[in-house]
Each structure stands twice: as structure tokens, then as C-alpha cells.
Amino acid sequence: MNAPRPLNLVAELTYRCPLQCPYCSNPLQLGAVREALDADDWARVFREAAALGVVHVGLTGGEPSARSDLPEIVAGAEAAGLYSHLVTAAVPLDPDGLAVLAERGLCSVQISLQDADAEHSDRIAGTRSFDRKQVLAAATKKLGLPLTLNVVLHRHNLDRTREIIRLARALDADRLELANAQYQGWALLNRAALLPTRSQLDHAAGVVREECAESDRPEILFVLPDYFRDRPKPCMAGWAQQHIVVAPNGLALPCHGAAELPGLEFWNVQEHALAECWSDSPGMNAYRGEDWMPEPCRSCDARKQDFGGCRCQAFALTGDASATDPACGLSPHHAAIEEAVAAPKEDVFRFRFPGNAAD
Amino acid sequence: MSAGLEARLRGILAERYHDRHPFNLRLHGGDCEPDEVRRWVRNRYYYQTRIPIKDGVILTKSEDRAFRRGWIRRIHDHDGDDRNQGGLELWLQLAVACGLDRDETASLRQVLPGVRRACDSYVTFVESHDLLESVASSLTELAAGAYLGHRAEAFRKYYDWIAEDGLDYFLSRTHQAPRDAEEGLAFVLEHADTTEREERCVAALEKKCSILWQLLDGVEWGGRRPQLANGVRLRTGDEPMVVSPERAIRIGGSGASILEACDGSRCVDEVAVSVREAFPDAPNGLESDVYAFIEEMERAHVLELPE
Ligand code: SF4
Ligand code: SF4
Question: Do residues B162 and B235 share a domain?
């Protein structure tokens, strides 16, 4: 198979995380995934990725700073010539730890915030962490590293979009990702508690427009969630097209959730070169390109833009990973989305922690 | 006609005419480096070239022979005729007196994109508005006569490296502008005979003031020194790319060499000159392409251009 050139490696260093966000994109079977790669293994993965054409690595998790060898891992990325971007919840990482990472070549930092103030943010995180996040944001700027803040939006914080933007501005963030929750994994489990209303979203979109007109800092990314758009998201820019995810156990995947799809065989970077995992593993090739597409995607012009949507969402909502993403209004299963949007809301969260995990 | 309208129009000029623009304050205060004066002369020439074109458009809007006979003089003033060399020629004389190359200036290839947009928007405005509004938009001339007199003085005082014959344009306009303004004002006061028309005249003059303002913003942009934004890395090689915290953007080989020249030491103009030196035989549009690329990279947060 002639595989495209990947540009980005998502290095999931661990699934450990002191936070308990109820929309975490990690798998529900947290404990089943062993942490198999040491810093040297990661360094090799980075070198192989660079040879494949990858230019950028997201160091993520779980919480990457839960690993004590994070500085060595950053150094490995730097040695491979990759642009390293740390995705952190600011726990346990502190400013001194961040300075060490910067010394080792870290290029940029993304800090997750859960809300605009300590009370609400800490409630969602399930841990006191809001104040630390602000301290780490300031430390990031002081080190001269670009700072991205990421806030997952949902029913309980959307109405504070303006406060969130103002906070990001006060922290002098370069970029603010207002990422509407994606209903997979933990977020699907908590969907009734997280799903916003259409009017909340419209209002937030208006706030974003107003704030962008006021100042061009930070740069704001806000995309209406697929549940409310009638069209799917172009998930991962297409299955196994630009992004390689390597999970803590060494599995090379096309996206965060792919390991949970039944019947797909992915290869492990401990047994295969990354290039083989990328180009030859049956799982990577399962939905690469367009050959797998059913109708209505197969004959739809939008397939070049949205690639038929998200395979994990198709599986979660239809039981068939090769179905058209039900977020699409043309999908025969679109009613599943409409019903979820219309369903009564709940306020009870299942927070992400081992006791709530599915294993 | 309304006595109030004239006061309103003059009030707009008092508040928004480009004599208050930071660039003009520096120019007239003797604070510009020779390169900045040259940048302004080179770019403002594009505005000069638009004037007879917009006046030609205005001519087509009038059914009145007497109006046209009066207005056509403005075209002669700029393009010249059997007796006068005309304002465009005098402007090129200024360019040469500043040390610029005549042909290079006349080729317009180094005209900066913000300047181009501002000047083009003046022509577009006149094309898409009626005669009254078009004439009203020319009333910045009311402020121009005296202002150009000051300019000639300031140039003599602060920029004595510019030969005296370079100032002929300003001196010629100190006579022409007040006369043009008188005629334009009389026309507007006569024809703006309803409140609605008055409002349109006011809006037209405000628009024109903002065009002149944007022109100078565009000139200043050419003096900014682009550099890779914080956290952006340029990867050269077979397949050049810029990589930033959340993105990797493929760029063509020429894009990579432009970005390499954007090292914070050169201003936009100098980056374009360095690319021109590398490709002396490239077509006239090369500089515009360089500017457009820099603008695109600024929008994509790849480059920053500190003020
Ligand atoms: S989403 Fe929350 S719980 Fe999941 S890894 Fe990120 S910070 Fe931890
Ligand atoms: S039918 Fe398929 S390709 Fe067309 S818009 Fe829907 S998901 Fe996209």
C-alpha cells in the first residue's frame, strides 16, 4: 500500500492523569493499557517518525508530566528534529519542571483549562488544579514559549465563553482552542450531562465573534460541534492520512479511539518499525482512502473534505465502524444524533477515574 | 444649499484629514529617515496615477457640458498637456530628486499592497457612487492647498538632501488644489439640496479621509521588519515547511527563501529587494507576490511584523 506522508505524531506517553475530566478522550479501559515504552523507545519512535516525514510531535496522555522521564523524552524529540508540543493539565508539572523541559528543547505548551474560574474548573477536573494552571501559563510565557490554552466546551461552561476568552487574554495566551466536547469515550458516557443546547452554542459563537473583533489576541479556534452542524467533522484529516497516534502500550493507531474498534489489527512499535505500522498494518489500511466508503459517502462530493466523518463515532452510535458518520444529515442513522440532542439533560457526571473505568 | 453642510465638511477634515496620521506628523516634523521618505514617494505615486483615472470616471457621470469642461482640467493637471508637463511627471521628478530610479518608480512594482488597496478603493468608490458623492469625496482638496505649502517648507528645512526641483509638485498643487476645492465645494453645496444628499456627501468625505489614512498605514507596513512568530520554525530542504504549535504548512521553495529573508533585520521593502536581486529577470509582479506572501504568512501567524 502506498501510504501518504504523515506530518504529526501524537505521542500518548501515559494514560495516568491526576485529573478526572468527564469528557476525557482516553479509552474507557484505562487500566488495560500497559505503559510499555521507555524514553529510549520513544526516542527511536521519534527518529522513525522524522524519517517518515513527520515534523511535529504532540506529547500528550493522560498527563505526560506524570512520567518522571519526560525531560529525556523531550530531548529525544529534539534530537530527532521534531517540533515538540506539550499537552498538559499542569499537574504535577510546575514551573521548574517546565524550565527543564524548555532546556531540553520543548517548543510549545498547551495547558488545559476546564472553565473560567477555580470553582467551576476544579469541579470538572475533579481535582484542585485551576491555580496551578495559571502559574504554569505565566511560566510558559516567561520562558518565551508559545502558549495555547485548551478548554473543552459543554453545557456547564459554554455560558462563560466570554470569561474564558478574557482569562486567556489576561494570561497572554497566543492561542485559545474552544473545543466543543466530542462524544466518544468518557464524553459519550456523560453525554446527557455535557450536551449543550443550540441556543447556548449560538450565543457562544456570537461572543467569539465579538471578542475576535475586539482584539486579535489570542487567536481563537471555535468550531461548532458536529452534533449541531448536520455534517461530520473531518476526523484526523482522514483515517491514517496525516496523524499517527502511538498509545502508551506502543500500538500505532490512526486516532485516539481506534484501538477500541473491534476486529481491527494494529501493530506495535515494539515489534515493527513505525513505517511498517503506518503503511502495512491492516488496521491503518482499513479505512484509508475511499475504497471502504458505503453510500451515501461513496457518491458524495463532500467526501474529499470530511472523509465520511469519524469511524469511532460511527461504531459507537451504529455498531458499524464502516458506516457513514451519523453526525451527517445524510446518514440513515442520523436520528441517533437528533434524539440525543433532544433528549432530557442530566446533571450527574461519571468522572474519569479508575473506579469508574470499564475494566 | 445649507450653510451647515460646509461647516460639517470642514469639521470632518479638521478631525480626520491625514495631516494627523502619525506618518505625516513624522514626515513634516523632520523625523523620517531618507528610506522612509523614499518609500512614501514611491508608494504615493500610485495614488497620483489613480487621480486622473477616477476623474475620468467622474466625467462619465455628468450630462452637463459645462461641468465636464471644468472637470477635465483636473486630468490635464495630472497627465499634462501641450503647455504643462503635469503632476505625474512632477512626481517622478520628486522621485528622482529623492534618489529613486525613475523607471522603477513608474513601473509601480514596489507599490505596497495596503497602498494599492487604499488607492484602488478610491477608484471603486467613485465607480459605484453617483456624481454628487464622487465630487464630495474629492473635497479633501479643501485641506490640501495649505497642507502642501507646509510640506514644501518642511522638506526644504529637514530633507535638504532632496534637490529643490523635487518640490515642484507640491508648489504646483498649492495653486491648483484650492481652485479645485472651491469648484467642488460649490457644486456640492448646490446639489446637496436634501438632508439625505447632505448625509451622503458627509459619508463620502469621511470615506475619502479613511482611504488617505489607510494609504499611510500601507506605507508604514513596508517599513516593518517581519520575523518568524514566536514558536514558529522554518524547515528548509526538499519539502519546505513552517511548523508552529498546532500546524505544519507546506510552502514552495520561493516561500522558504522569502521566509529566510524575514529574519527581523530587513523591512518588507528590503525583503522584496533581496528577492528581486535573486531573480532580476522575474516579471513585474514579483514584488507583489512577495508582499502577498508576507501578508498571508502574517494572517496565518507564521510571521509577525512588530510596529
Ligand atoms: S481530559 Fe482531563 S482527565 Fe483526560 S487526560 Fe486530559 S486532563 Fe486528564
Ligand atoms: S454523506 Fe458522507 S461524505 Fe457526504 S457529507 Fe455525509 S459523511 Fe460526508
Answer: no
Percent of chain B with pLDDT over 70: 99
* Per-residue model confidence (pLDDT) at position B208: 98
Domain assignment of residue B287, given as a range: 227-304
Question: Chain A contact for B230, CB < 8 A?
Answer: yes
**What secondary structure does DSSP assign to A247-287, as a single string?**
-TTSBEESSTTGGGSTT----BTTTS-HHHHHHH-HHHHHT
Angle at A181 between CA A178 and CA A184, to 5 degrees: 150
Number of domains in chain B: 2
Which tens digit of pLDDT belongs to each residue from A308-346? 999 999 999 999 999 999 999 999 999 999 999 988 777
pLDDT for res B34? 96
Angstrom distance (rounded) from CA B13 to CA B177? 15
Rounded CA-CA distance A148/A142 in Å is: 14
Nearest by CB to residue B243, choosing from A83, A144, A174, is A83
Eight-class DSSP state of B63: -
**Same domain for B294 and B253:** yes
Mean pLDDT is lowest, of A28-42, A96-110, A159-173, for A28-42
Q: What residues contact B194, with CB distance under 8 A and at least 6 apart?
A: none
**Could you tell me if B187 and B246 lie in one domain?**
no
Q: Is the peptide bond before A234 cis (omega within 30 degrees of 0)?
A: no
Instruction: Give the minimum alpha-carbon distance from B117 to chain A in angstroms, rounded to a whole number.
Output: 21
Query: Of A355, A352, A359, A351, whose CA–CA distance to A26 is shortest?
Result: A352
Residues of A in contact with B301 (CB under 8 A): 174, 219
Cα B33 to Cα A14, A356, B40, B98, B112: the distances in Å are 57, 69, 11, 12, 18
Task: Please tell me whether residues B174 and B148 are part of one structural domain.
Answer: yes
pLDDT higher at A184 or A196: A196
Residue B82 vs residues A222, B76, B77, B79, B85: alpha-carbon distances, Å:
62, 9, 11, 10, 8
Cell triple for B44:
504615493
* pLDDT of A1 strictly over 90: no
* Domain boundary pick from B197, B222, B247: B222
The string over A280-294, giving b where at least 16 C-beta atoms fall within 10 Å of a residue's C-beta and e elsewhere, is ebebbbbbbbeebbe
Selected for mutation to probe chain B from A52, A56, A85 (highest B CB count within 10 Å) is A56
How many residues can be counted in chain A?
Answer: 359
Mean of all residue pLDDT scores within chain B: 94
If you measure CA to CA, which chain B residue comes closest to A105?
B231
Alpha helices by DSSP H, chain B: 3-16, 22-28, 34-59, 65-79, 87-97, 102-107, 113-128, 131-137, 141-158, 168-191, 195-221, 253-261, 268-278, 286-299
Q: Are B261 and B152 found together in one domain? A: no
Pick from A246, A243, A269, A272: nearest CA to A259:
A246
CATH of the domain at B263: 1.10.10.1150
Give the CATH number for residue B143. 1.20.910.10
- A164: Cβ–Cβ under 8 A, 6 or more apart, which residues? A113, A115, A116, A151, A157, A176, A178
Which ligand lies nearest the alpha carbon of A126? 1
**Grid coordinates belonging to B77:** 493637471
Ligand 2 atom nearest residue A232's Cα? 7
The letter for the amino acid at A335 is A
- Give the C-alpha separation, A169 to A348, whole Å: 31
Q: Is B188 in the same domain as B48? A: yes
Based on the fold, state whether residues B121 and B259 are members of the same structural domain. Answer: no
What span, in angstroms and rounded, lies between the C-alpha atoms of A14 and A24? 13
Nearest to B144 by CA among B193, B220, B209: B209
Asked if B257 and B217 sit in the same domain, the reply is: no
- Last-in-domain residue among B184, B201, B222: B222
